[in-house]
Automatic annotation (TrEMBL):
One of its GO terms (molecular function) is tRNA (guanine(46)-N7)-methyltransferase activity. The gene is trmB. Keywords: Methyltransferase, S-adenosyl-L-methionine, Transferase, tRNA processing. It catalyses: guanosine(46) in tRNA + S-adenosyl-L-methionine = N(7)-methylguanosine(46) in tRNA + S-adenosyl-L-homocysteine. S-adenosyl-L-methionine binds at residues 59, 84, 111, 134. It comes from Candidatus Marimicrobium litorale. It is an enzyme of class 2 (transferase). Substrate binds at residues 138, 170, 207-210. PANTHER family: 3-DEOXY-D-MANNO-OCTULOSONIC-ACID TRANSFERASE/TRNA GUANINE-N 7 - -METHYLTRANSFERASE, PENTACOTRIPEPTIDE-REPEAT REGION OF PRORP DOMAIN-CONTAINING PROTEIN. CDD domains: AdoMet_MTases. This is tRNA (guanine-N(7)-)-methyltransferase. It holds the Pfam family Methyltransf_4.
Amino acid sequence: MQDPVKKRGIRSYVLRVGRMTPVQKRALEDNWPRWGLEYDEGSLDIDAAFGRPGHRVLEIGFGMGHSLVEMAEARPETNFIGIEVHRPGIGKLFHGLENTGADNVRVYCHDAVEILRDCIADASLDTVQIFFPDPWHKKRHQKRRLVQAPFVSLLVKKLKKGGTLHIATDWENYAEQMMNVLGAETSLTNSFGAGCFSPRPDDRPLTKFEKRGERLGHGVWDLLFIRT
């Protein structure tokens, strides 16, 4: 497993040295040869990585992996590629996959921009999903937000025509910025009309965090765009 930190420009994350539980550590070490993908191996043959063809979904920043495990279990015919830089989250994801028996997830522990640039072929993905990326809510930190025009331009190249970009956030200010950035990308079309947010699609699991937010009156904004 490679160190996710390489020298490049401003990053959308801070690599925290989080404590791994014994279960997470064991799951990560035992399953990395099976489910892990290495950045240094270069361009990814997706069908070979899964041992089969299938609908291709890339999730950027899956956190502790709860929703990705749920989606993988519910959609066994889909091939999910996850990108996450925090090892405890990958360990938790692998533990969840062990418990469910799902075998349709492969994972990079590396910077998403570099993975997209160097490992994912153009027009190779059916769906890209980014759920609740760090909002970097302080104004002086907002340059670190992941969803910026250069990143979206790179990401769109990796989607097939007709492919879906699905982003969700619980920060209204970030949602508005996302809408502006995605709306300005000429290769994307808003599924619900210019400037309109999407209802939560049924295939995006409702997280415990989101349920708690709903009880407290917090909003969640989904953006659903199609590659034209």
